[in-house]
Design a protein that fits this description.
Elements (H helix, E strand, L loop, with lengths): L2 E3 L6 E5 L4 H13 L1 E7 L5 H12 L3 E6 L2 E7 L11 E2 L4 H12 L4 E5 L2 H5 L3 H9 L3 E4 H4 L1 E7 L8 E3 L5 H11 L4 E6 L7 H8 L4 E4 L2 E6 L8 E3 L4 H13 L4 E8 L6 H8 L3 E10 L2 E9 L3 E2 L2 E2 L11 H8 L2 E7 L12 H11 L4 E4 L2 E6 L7 E4 L4 H10 L7 E4 L11 H7 L3
Parallel strand pairs: 2-15, 3-14, 6-7, 10-11, 18-20, 19-20, 23-24
Antiparallel strand pairs: 1-24, 3-5, 4-5, 7-9, 8-9, 11-13, 12-13, 15-17, 16-17, 20-22, 21-22
Helix pairs in contact: 1-2, 1-8, 2-3, 3-5, 3-7, 5-7, 9-11, 9-13, 11-13
This protein binds shikimate-3-phosphate.
The site of shikimate-3-phosphate has 12 residues, from helix 1 and helix 7.
């Protein structure tokens, strides 16, 4: 599907965005490992989360989708899964693959996991290394590093102490999920703190999890996990597209309600404040161990900043939309220490640089990021490639709201991976 992104004069409205993708995946997985009923409210129904749901069902989980955003998981404890009949397909979802590899490493059966062409290229050694130390066995393409991967799980998971080479919540969560089965303490240390939704949900369900700065310790076996009600907050990564739209269009006032504000995810808000954005957080509260609140965003005069180091994991998914914002900030915006972007759904550094160049923007590509000197006009009048990457597609659509000419975006249907409602909200902003 090709769309044409067109200018928007100003945004004056109130919206909500769909449930958080990371928390929706974890609700399904942890609910299946717990004992008793977990009801997930405001669940994100998208291609990625449905991949997790289908795989869990194929290994025997009892999950009912009551309505689009309501799920009931009837958990039967850590050892209630069975060998799947067929190959498991994680489609485009890295979170599904890496988290479920942690689950499957601790099940004494044979399974094979695969995905789409993008996922088949993404690095899996980062989870295979620690999970092998814990007793799982893995066989895959490219010397065992790429999907399809065969997993021979164990019922004797060994607790480990592990330093991850990259700050990745997917890697950390994978180790924690296997560690739930190990007798003793499994410890994961990261170079920078990544999102901690797994840890928070596990604590909420009664597990013994300790978070000390960049180290997480889980004590197993966690046979006492209890099913709970989970309200999934709005996804701050999805909200970011509209936050940026309101900041860069004139005379805008946008209220986004019920957004997840977990500090390991709000790096985008910290950066926007540094850039001079007028954003206020109201109605802050806590729901199932996750902070949530409403965001009030006004069009703002912005200045360029450097985004690097430990900040990167807290806004890793927002860098494509930050690149659009940077074109409208006065001075230089630098993204560095973000080489991880090259291993996402597509090489996002390459995709951002090539598509912004098509839009008429001067951008300098670096190995671990890019530089943009603003303000620059977005000329448009071109056809852009989404690279089948949902976050690239949505960022380009937001660029279209202030472009001088229309921007066509190819393969826009990839937004269904995380945000199927994107287009309807986007169209409703026109005023
Ligand atoms: C996710 C973690 C991040 C993020 C991805 C979702 C998660 O990946 O980019 O969209 O739910 O754990 P890494 O932790 O591998 O950087």
């Amino acid at each position: 599907m090709k769309i044409e992104a067109v200018p928007i004069k100003s945004i004056n409205t109130e919206i909500t965005v769909p449930g958080d993708k990371s928390i929706s995946h974890r609700g399904l997985i942890l609910g299946s490992l717990a004992n008793g009923e977990t009801r997930i409210h405001n669940f994100l129904t998208s291609e990625d989360t449905l991949a997790t749901l289908e795989i869990l069902k194929s290994i025997g989980a009892n999950i009912t989708q009551v309505s689009k955003n309501e799920i009931i998981v009837r958990g039967n404890g850590l050892n209630s899964f069975r060998e799947p009949f067929d190959v498991l397909n994680a489609k485009n979802s890295g979170t599904t693959t890496r988290l479920l590899m942690g689950v499957l490493a601790a099940q004494k059966f044979y399974s094979v996991i695969t995905g789409d062409d993008s996922l088949k290229k993404r690095p899996m050694k980062r989870v295979i290394d620690p999970l092998s130390k814990m007793g799982g066995r893995f066989f895959g393409r490219k010397g065992g590093e790429n999907l399809p991967i065969t997993i021979l799980g164990t019922d004797k998971v060994v607790p480990i102490t592990y330093e991850t080479p990259v700050a990745s919540a997917q890697v950390k969560s994978s180790i924690i999920l296997a560690g739930l089965h190990a007798k003793g303490k499994t410890m994961v240390k990261e170079p920078a703190k990544s999102r901690d939704h797994t840890e928070r949900m596990l604590k909420y369900m009664g597990a013994d999890v300790v978070e000390k700065e960049k180290t997480t310790i889980i004590s197993g076996p966690a046979n006492n996990l209890k099913g709970k009600d989970i309200f999934v907050p709005g996804d701050i990564s999805s909200a970011s597209f509209f936050i940026v739209a309101a900041l860069i269009t004139k005379n805008s006032n946008l209220l986004i309600k019920d957004v997840g504000l977990n500090p390991t995810r709000t790096g985008i808000l910290d950066v926007l404040k540094m850039m001079g954005a007028e954003i206020s957080i109201i109605n802050e509260r806590n729901l199932n161990n996750e902070p949530i609140g409403d965001l009030l965003v006004k069009s703002s005069k912005l200045k360029g900043v450097e985004i690097s180091g430990d900040m990167i994991p807290s806004l890793i998914d927002e860098i494509p939309i930050i690149s659009i914002l940077a074109t409208q900030a006065e001075g230089k915006t630098t993204i560095k220490d973000a080489k991880e972007l090259r291993y996402k759904e597509t090489d996002r550094i390459k995709a951002i640089c090539s598509e912004l160049t098509k839009l008429g923007i001067e951008i300098t590509e670096k190995d671990d990021g890019f530089d943009i000197i603003g303000k620059q006009k977005i000329k448009g009048n071109c056809t852009c490639n989404s690279y089948n990457d949902h976050r690239i597609a949505m960022s380009l659509a937001i660029a279209g709201t202030i472009a001088e000419n229309p921007i066509k975006i190819q393969n826009f249907e990839c937004v269904n991976i995380s945000f199927p409602e994107f287009l309807s909200i986007y169209k409703s902003l026109k005023s």
